[in-house]
């Protein structure tokens, strides 16, 4: 990763929100991703598993007013749990958001979650949140690699 290749360059925080169906079958690059956190290439790794039994999963983290012991099942829920950090990085620090996944549900749900996060953190209405997201897209700071 570029951070390792250019250690003197200034990089902001890097967050990876990763979701798949099953921890034991689909979390294919677990060691590598956790290694990126250990090495500092990633600042935060937030994972979720949509089809695992919540009773068998590790306890969820208490973040941003959420006190549920159940871990989030979908990436958009993880984004919302961390909305203060996400909106700060995107809007104040001029960060980037890349979304990869299926176009049918996940991309729409992530877009809706981003709108909700912006509305809540900036205390604006839906139209202003939509304008903010449109600006992020125009500036190429909210990009999607999605498939049907």
Automatic annotation (TrEMBL):
Gene Ontology MF terms in the entry: [methionine synthase] reductase (NADPH) activity; flavin adenine dinucleotide binding; FMN binding
GO biological process, one term: methionine biosynthetic process
One cellular component term from this protein's GO annotations in UniProt: cytosol
Matches recorded under Pfam families: NAD_binding_1
Record-linked InterPro entries: FNR_nucleotide-bd, OxRdtase_FAD/NAD-bd
Membrane-crossing segments per the record: none
SUPFAM superfamilies: Ferredoxin reductase-like, C-terminal NADP-linked domain (SSF52343)
Record's keyword terms, sorted: Flavoprotein
Keyword Flavoprotein: yes
Oxidoreductase FAD/NAD(P)-binding domain mapped to chain residues: 10-110
PANTHER family linked: METHIONINE SYNTHASE REDUCTASE (PTHR19384:SF84), NITRIC OXIDE SYNTHASE-RELATED (PTHR19384)
Protein name stated in the entry: Methionine synthase reductase-like
Organism of provenance: Notothenia coriiceps
Lineage: Eukaryota, Metazoa, Chordata, Craniata, Vertebrata
Gene that specifies this protein: LOC104943965
């Amino acid at each position: 990763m570029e951070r390792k290749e250019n250690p003197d360059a200034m990089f902001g925080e890097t967050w990876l929100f990763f979701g798949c169906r099953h921890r034991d079958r689909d979390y294919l690059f677990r060691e590598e991703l956790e290694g990126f956190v250990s090495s500092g290439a990633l600042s935060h790794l937030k994972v979720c598993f949509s089809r695992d039994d919540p009773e068998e999963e590790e306890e969820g983290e208490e973040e941003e007013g959420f006190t549920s012991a159940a871990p989030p099942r979908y990436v958009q829920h993880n984004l919302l749990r961390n909305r203060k950090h996400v909106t700060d990085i995107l809007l104040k620090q001029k960060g980037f958001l890349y979304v990869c996944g299926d176009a049918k549900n996940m991309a729409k749900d992530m877009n809706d979650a981003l709108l909700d996060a912006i509305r809540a953190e900036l205390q604006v209405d839906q139209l202003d949140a939509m304008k903010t997201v449109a600006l992020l897209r125009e500036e190429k700071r909210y990009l999607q690699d999605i498939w049907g």
